[in-house]
């Protein structure tokens, strides 16, 4: 039996995930859904953001639907999402950016780079180690190549880096180029800062962009501009044995508890989960329902509307389930 973990987490995660879960249950009527409590709220309640038991449960699942967790500025508090990505070795963060005029995918290395977690925090000097390894660069490059081949858009694979300043990026860039060459893919090597501007000016020139951990994080928030904001962007975190699906946005404490968060990023993440499990046509049906709801102007305040999270979720669900 298919087992799905549902992690709401903190803040707006608690509001958007139920809307996505409802859709998952519709497409997976026979699956077992396991609720896992983790995050900052859980840390406040129990002193542990994610118990060993919870981590074990996550590892036993076929897929994880994940909301968002708050990471407080406390230097003692380790990001729980980073821990999960490491423990489950979710090395590829896939972030599609899609709207009427844009259709691209950011493939972000998810386990090392500036998010290595190797840090020394001092009063006078703090350092974070930026780690780039051959093996991790190769596997993310291979993932990007396979996505590029699958999408077959006839556009070059773009490598985003800063090898002129960060010598650690020379290894990343060269491995990406070498892997792409073995697959006969045309490649375009770009500095990440120039890329951030160019993708906003000419999004149609882009198909698959592969980059390191923090650059990918920043680039995908930047691309939020192309799609009406963070509330629209889904993502997948894929490893060899595990897969976790989450909206690109965080827990947004500023709007949490008001029922106005946009659930579309979470719903699209559920669509990616279903695609990953090979559920036929689910992703297309979900996207069509999202588009119809957007066209009706049933949208949350971040998109200029006055609908609630639930209004949007229910509308999309009704279209999927054929009740509307
Ligand atoms: P975190 O530390 O958990 O990442 P954050 O304060 O950085 O929290 P984000 O969720 O990353 O918040 O989002 C940044 C801003 O974008 C939020 O302050 C919020 O106003 C807006 N935002 C993010 N997601 C959504 C959403 N789903 N619907 C509406 N607005 C959103
Ligand atoms: Mg954030």
UniProtKB/TrEMBL annotation:
Does the record carry S-adenosyl-L-methionine as a key word? Answer: no
Domain of life per record: Archaea
Keyword Oxidoreductase appears in the UniProt entry:
yes
Keyword terms of this UniProt record: Oxidoreductase
Show the InterPro entries listed in the entry.
IsoCit/isopropylmalate_DH_CS, IsoPropMal-DH-like_dom
Q: Where is the Isopropylmalate dehydrogenase-like domain?
A: 3-316
EC top class, in one word? oxidoreductase
Tell me which EC number(s) this protein carries.
Answer: 1.1.1.87
Biological process according to GO: isocitrate metabolic process; tricarboxylic acid cycle
Q: Which SMART domains match?
A: Iso_dh
Q: Name one GO molecular function term.
A: isocitrate dehydrogenase (NAD+) activity
User: What's this protein's family per the entry?
Assistant: Belongs to the isocitrate and isopropylmalate dehydrogenases family.
Name used for this protein in its record: Homoisocitrate dehydrogenase
| Gene transcribed to yield this protein | hicd
